[in-house]
Structures are given as structure tokens and as C-alpha cells.
UniProtKB/TrEMBL annotation:
SUPFAM superfamilies noted in UniProt: Invasin/intimin cell-adhesion fragments
Signal peptide: 1-19
Domain BIG2: 32-107, 112-187
Residue stretches in coiled coil: none
The UniProt record lists the keyword Signal: yes
The organism's place on the tree of life at top rank: Bacteria
Alphabetically ordered keywords of this record: Signal
Name of the featured protein: BIG2 domain-containing protein
Amino acid sequence: MKKVKFIKFTMAFFACVLAVTMGSCDKNDDPKVPDLKCTPSKVEVAPGKTATVTVSGGTAPFTVTSSDSKIATAKADKNTITITGVKNGTATILISDSKKLTGKVPVMVKDMASELDFDKKSISVTAGKEETVTVKGGSAPFTATAKDTKIATVTIKDGKIIIKGVKAGSTSVTVTDKDKKAGTISVTVK
């Protein structure tokens, strides 16, 4: 009889310990709540222009705030966030949904038109030979300077940039237009 009482007592004791242990584990083992997924995960936009981001993994309505509204602003329409560039700089758009899930999108606002573009951003030329690069956009007249004239020289003819290899090495050529827009061409001389 004493053995039966001892076994019942022991079983009840372990049942209580197990219940307390299981109850306390429930609170410690909650899975981490996932953040909102934003596509694209980062944005580059020009001042006065907009870019859109699609939010998934959350519940509408979404609220958005900018870390710096002087750089970029945002508004939400269902799961689409429209980001507007205000002026050059960086900001972060913070997004939250109705269940307190959060996400963020880094934003770089830069005037894309402030840089000249070329048909070739990098060239390879043999020493003694020439390579021609065409400027895309910008306003003539252009000026061009080679960073190291011992490796390459540069001239401009009819709005085209003519780069001549002098000796083996690497350098760059900076081109500027009349409005002070600039761009760089990487040059490798073989």
C-alpha cells in the first residue's frame, strides 16, 4: 500500500514539474515574427521622380514614414508604396502593417541627369592606337582630361572623345559638358 501511494505521489510530482516546465517553455520558444518583405529592397530615384515598392507578408493597411522627409517622402496604397525623391541625399522609408510587422527600404535620391553617360564606360586600347567614345546626353562643347597622360591622352573631335594609348597601364578620362555635368571613362592600355 505504501508503494502505491509513493508511486502515485511521485507521478503527480513529475506531472506538476512537467506542466510547469512546459508552461514556461511556451513563452520562451515563440518564433520570431517575420518582417515585411519589400521588393525592391532598396530604391534609387531622382528628385521630383517616383519609384514603387511592393510589400508582401503583411496585412493592410500599411503606414509609411520617412526618416527624412526633406530627402524622400512615401505614401501607401494597398500593398504598393510610392516613394518620391525630394532632393539629393539618403533616407529610409519605414513601413508597418496593421499587425505591427515592420519593414524598411533604404532610399538614395540623386539627380541622375547630373552625370554624363557614354556608349562605352570603359575601354581597352593598345599603345599607339586610338579608341572613340560617344557622349550620350549632355551639352557641347565638352572638355576631357586624362588622369595620367603618360598612359593615355585624350582629344575631342566633332563631339566624340578620342582616347589614345601611350603606354601600358590604367587611368581614367573625365569628360565635362558646358553645364558642368561630368562622367568618367575607365581606360586600360595594353
